[in-house]
Specification:
Blueprint: H1 2-18, H2 36-39, H3 44-53, H4 55-58, H5 73-87, H6 98-113, H7 120-125, H8 133-153
Helix pairs in contact: 3-8, 6-8
Length: 158
């Protein structure tokens, strides 16, 4: 019994100690001038969808849930945001080459259509990120329109 108490006490002390090791927050001091919505026509409904279903992991500003202050959840969230931004960052989209931008938009269409994005783990805590078929169509039609605009403006083909 003493061993179980020592292990429990050790785990409690460890849990408390890790609360002081915090990852940096993904909160930009000001809006990016390179955001996709500032460079390509984006209807308000699409901006709303991007904000609730995409931007937390794929932009320079994340809306953090309450559990983001509890370790190890904060580390897990920071890892997701880091990985998401590495794959696609809407806040820096206009810095992408035309070919890369068109490719990213094609990936968005595929992943949203296949329901790979938003991630299931994200949708658990963000029910507003569960896209309806109509929202999926709205988002993918917009992405395809921007993709076609980029291809045409740069003399690229599919």
């Amino acid at each position: 019994m003493k061993l179980i108490k020592k292990i429990t006490l050790g785990l409690v002390v460890l849990f408390i100690a890790i609360q002081f090791v915090r990852p940096a927050r993904n909160i930009a001091p000001r809006p990016s001038e390179n955001d996709i919505t500032d460079h390509y026509p984006t209807p308000p409904a699409v901006k709303q969808l991007l904000a609730v279903a995409c931007y937390d992991c794929h932009s320079n500003t994340t809306r953090y849930p309450w559990y983001a202050d509890v370790q190890p959840a904060a580390w897990w969230l920071a890892s997701h945001v880091h990985d998401g931004k590495a794959r696609l960052n809407f806040s820096e989209f206009s810095t992408y080459s035309p070919k890369r931008a068109a490719n990213k938009l094609d990936q968005i269409i595929d992943e949203v259509t296949d329901r790979e994005m938003p991630l299931a783990s994200y949708k658990l805590g963000h029910p507003d990120a569960r896209l309806t078929p109509a929202q999926t169509k709205l988002l993918t039609d917009w992405a395809d329109g921007v993709r076609q605009q980029i291809l045409a403006a740069n003399g690229l083909t599919d």
